[in-house]
Amino acid sequence: MSAITLNAKASTTFAAKLAHTQALLQQAALEFARDAGATSPALTLACSLGAEDMVLAHLVNALAIDADIFVLETGMLHTQTLALLAQLQATSTAPVKVYRPDAQAAAGFVAREGEKAMYNSIELRKACCQIRKMEPLERALTGKKAWITGLRREQSGTRAAVPDLDRSDAKRAKLNPLADWTWGDVWHYIASNAVAYNPLHDEFYPSIGCAPCTRAIAMGEDFRAGRWWWESEAAKECGLHVSPHSSLAPTQANFAASEVKGGTPGRSQNSELKECGLHVGKTQQSESSALAVPAQANLLAEQVKGGTPGRSQSEVAQAHVAAGDVKPEGRAEAKTLNKEAA
Ligand code: SF4
Questions:
Q1: Which of 48, 82, 227, 238 to mutate to test the pocket of ligand 1 (most atoms within 8 A of CB)?
Q2: 62-71, 249-258, 270-279, 324-333: range with highest mean pLDDT
Q3: Quick one: which of 39, 53, 112, 300 is 20 to 30 A from 314 by CA?
């Protein structure tokens, strides 16, 4: 079963949401217009090549918004993600800019801490994110008045209060035009507009980041359960979406650190600690999330303990088959369909 078949279910208010999103983008293009004589737009789209960002890239092009699109190519992306990047570069009218980490800093980190350092502590994981994401992000945002993101309130407890337009950073505004979209809305738009998407979504990867830090999820798991799954929830952002005024409360950070000590990447019960920083807002640090960790998550925790974090796709497929959401042969059919669509 493809991600479209599984997820494309528009909410009853989808038409109004889409109109609101289009209006937000058009208003932003006016408010954050480039200065006279500027050679590049003052508005930019942060594109992770995930489903939401592919929708936004499509909208930016369809509406002829004066914005460029940037991608952080961390050097750790899946081959499927890199193929989608090439496709976007070939088809987008809006310029697509690729930012890579400083090669010396990235190589030095690996030489010093090892290739799997991100699993050893939150500090090392965030240090890796700093080199591969945060520093390139700073370069991507330099000179920009505002940036567009695919954040949705539904994505996690730490994103539940995402505003349409966040002006809390004095340096630049952040526009979240899909803030009130559901996952079903996103996939309805993708299906309706034949938007290209990452085939990993058909493999039960709803949220896709770097390969070492992303895995497929099972039915019932939190949307972002496949990202930094060995950490607790509020530690999970990589830094891209952390408000400049925001920081994890010390007690949360200490708790998060204690959970990963010992190198046993299990799952935490505390979903608040999982943001990596990219998307943690000023008012969110004191919010108490009531995200429940499903029973399936506890089962999955056993699968990552004591070894390299991750599960084989066949294990994930078996979990979905057991949950009754997909037939084994359906996955093969989905792959065929996607190849045809591509
Ligand atoms: S997501 Fe993982 S691999 Fe990517 S920059 Fe962060 S720690 Fe490094």
A1: 238
A2: 62-71
A3: 53
Token code pair at residue 3: 């991600």
**Which residues form the domain of 286?**
3-337
Give every CB contact of residue 267 below 8 A, 6+ residues apart in sequence: 225, 229, 230, 293, 297, 298, 300, 301, 304
User: Is residue 222 situated within a structural domain?
Assistant: yes
Report the pLDDT value the prediction gives residue 202, as an integer from 0 to 100.
96
Residue 78 is which amino acid? H
Q: Are 127 and 106 in contact (CB under 8 A)?
A: no
289, 157 in Cβ contact below 8 A?
yes
Residue with tokens 């930094």: 228
- CA-to-CA distance for 288 and 308, rounded, in angstroms? 31
Q: If you take atom 3 of ligand 1, which residue's CA is the nearest one? A: 210
221 domain residue, yes or no: yes
Look up residue 196 and give its two tokens.
């290209």
Instruction: Tell me if 62 is assigned to some domain.
Output: yes
328, with CB counted inside 10 A (0-12, 13-18, 19+), is exposed
- Say how many Å lie between the CA of residue 213 and the centre of ligand 1: 6
Helix, strand counts (H, E) of the chain: 12, 6
Q: Is the pLDDT of residue 283 over 60?
A: no
The answer to whether residue 282 scores a pLDDT higher than 60 is no
Question: Taking a C-beta distance cutoff of 8 angstroms, is the pair 88, 49 a contact?
Answer: yes
Global pTM reads: 0.75
Among the listed residues 204, 215, 255, the one whose alpha carbon sits nearest the alpha carbon of residue 234: 255
Q: What is the CATH number of the domain that holds 37?
A: 3.40.50.620
Domain assignment present for 342? no
Q: How many domains does the chain have?
A: 1
